[in-house]
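Researcher: I'm preparing a figure for a lab meeting and need a structural model of a single chain. I don't have an experimental structure, so a prediction will have to do for now. The sequence is pasted below. Please return the structure as C-alpha cells so I can convert it later.
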Amino acid sequence: MTSLIGRDILGISDLSRVEMVEVLELAALLKSGQRSPMCQKVLGLLFYKASTRTRVSFSVAMYQLGGQVIDLNPSVTQVGRGEPITDTARVLDRYLDILAVRTFKQEDLETFAKYAKIPIINALSDLEHPCQILADLMTIQECFGQLEGMTVTYLGDGNNVAHSLILGGAIMGMKIRVATPEAYKPDPMIVEKAKKLGVEGFEIVLTDDPIEAVKGSHVLYTDVWASMGQEASAESRIPIFSPYQVNEDLLSHADQDAIVLHCLPAHRGEEITEEVIEGKHSRVWDQAENRMHAQKALMVSVLGIK
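Model: Understood. Here is the structure written out cell by cell.
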C-alpha cells in the first residue's frame, strides 16, 4: 500500500476509508501467518506516560518484523531534562526509521511530525488513541465479519479513546453511541469532524442514558473513568460514573450476541464488573492481542516493508 509510505499517523482520521480497510486486511494476514514481511528498521519508543500494552505490542511487532527497538525513556534521556522537541525530533530523525510517541499533548506530536522526516505514530495523546481503535475495529470485524452498520456503544468518560472511536466509526460507516455524564461528553470539535467525515451508514448519538444507549447494541465498550494524569479526581468520579458501569444488567439490554471491549487497564468493580470482563461476551484479550497485529500492519504500511 504505497499511499501510506512515509506518512505520519497522528489521529485515526489520517487514514482514509480505503487505507483503513487495507491496514485491517493486512493485520489479519499478518495474524494468520499468510504474510511474513521482514525488515532491518529501527523503531524508537518515546513514552512520556506509563504503558504496558502499547510498549510491548509495538516492540514485539517490530522484533517479529526483524527490526530493532530503542526505548527512549524520558527519565534517562535529555528530553526529561527539558531538551526542546524541535531539537529531539531532528536528532532522532537521523537515527531512527520510525518513532512512536505517547504524550500528554497532541501538539507535541504535531511538533515531532513537523521537524522529523520519519513517520511519527501517535501511541496515545490527550486527544486521540488511533492505534487502539485499529485493534478495536479488527476485533469487531473478527467477531461479526463486518464493520459497516455495526452499532457500538461507548460508556464512561468522553476521552481520547472515545474520540478515536467516534472518528473511526465515521470513516467505516458504523453507528456510534456515546453514553457519558453531561459534563464528560466528547470534545464537540471531534463530533463535528466525525459528522463531516462520516460515510453512508454512520450515525452518532450522544446521551446521558446508559440503558437507552446499549439497547440492541452489538458492542459495549468502556475505559477507566479517570485517565492518566487525572488520578487526583478518581475517587470523586466514582459516584458520577457508577450508572455507566458495564455489568450484567446493562449487558442484558444489548444484542444477545453482543461483545464487550475494554482497552485496559481495567478497574474491576468500577467501570466494569469481574463477571462481565471474564464472561462469555468479553473479547478483551483478543482486543489486547490485536494491538500487536494492527500496529505491525501500520508499521509495514508506513515503512513500505515488502
